[in-house]
Amino acid sequence: MSDQPYNPGSDGAQMDFRAAMSYGDYLHLDGILTQQHPLSDAHDEMLFIIQHQTSELWMKLALHELSAAREALRAGRMPEMFKMLARVSRIFEQLNSAWDVLRTMTPADYTRFRKALGPSSGFQSYQYRLIEYVLGNRNPNMVKPHEHRPEIADALRAELARPSFYDEVVALLFATVEGPEPAPAHQLDTPHNARPDIQARWKSVYEDVNRYWTLYELGEKLVDLEDYFRRWRFNHVTTVERVIGFKRGTGGTSGVQYLRRMLEVELFPELWHVRGEL
């Protein structure tokens, strides 16, 4: 055994990057790793910042996948779309795991820097709002916190003007499964409300899985996605309650009460309600 330190270059690894792209160059790590700027001397503020920055990166990927999945659905590229939906579910699994790290912060830790946040709040995450809009939970009032950034407000309104992913799913459902009612109009700038005619079509799918296998698989992919999404919301509630109790949120919401109200929102209600009819 040699007493000399192992040199990866001896096995062919490139060691000189003065004229080549390095790992840090490709990922622009200098830009990413210099964007954490705590406003206090509290040790846990760095945790708080990185938790939310990484969550925004995962949400950016979720939007990338959902946008492509909607286009794949419209083009009939179903296997490609299924893969993207499965990836979005795994993204929300990652987002769920992140709460475990944040929960290591105690109320005393958070109190040390909470005032530094001012009125900023995760309530104002435009990427989270876009995810909700893409999936079909569309509250136009939630554009208002972004009016100070016209490009963001315009992006949210543009999403409200086009059919949601679930609107496109419903269109496929009615085009595939026969029934007495015509396809419903897209629910563009309003939260998706459960409709008996949509639920009836899903019932036909679940009662004849072999005939409607693709729709059945799509329905289960959506339930899987919402399952992870609900867990993310639930973990958010319990983390907030654990850290600040029932204080008002920094953004002015009622805090835990507001988040609990969000737990009642169903993205794909007919897919959940139909289970009681089977």
Account of the 3D structure:
This protein has helices at residues 23-27, 29-32, 45-75, 78-102, 107-111, 126-135, 150-160, 165-176, 196-207, 213-244, 256-263, 269-273. The protein has twelve helices and no strands. The relative contact order is 0.11. With 278 residues, it is mainly α. The longest helix has 32 residues, at 213-244. The chain has a single domain (41-277), classed as Methane Monooxygenase Hydroxylase, Chain G, domain 1 (Up-down Bundle). Helix content is 58%, strand content 0%.
Q: Note the total helix count.
A: 12
Order of helices and strands: HHHHHHHHHHHH
Proportion of helical residues: 55-70%
Q: Describe the global form.
A: globular
Integer tally of domains: 1
Q: What's the architecture in CATH terms?
A: Up-down Bundle
CATH topology call: Methane Monooxygenase Hydroxylase, Chain G, domain 1
Overall pLDDT metric: 92
Overall strand count? 0
Taking the alpha carbons of the first and last residues, their distance comes to: 68 Å
Task: Note the main sheet.
Answer: none
CATH class: Mainly Alpha
Based on secondary structure, the structural category is mainly alpha
- Approximate strand percentage: under 5%
Radius of gyration: 23 Å
Low-confidence stretches: none
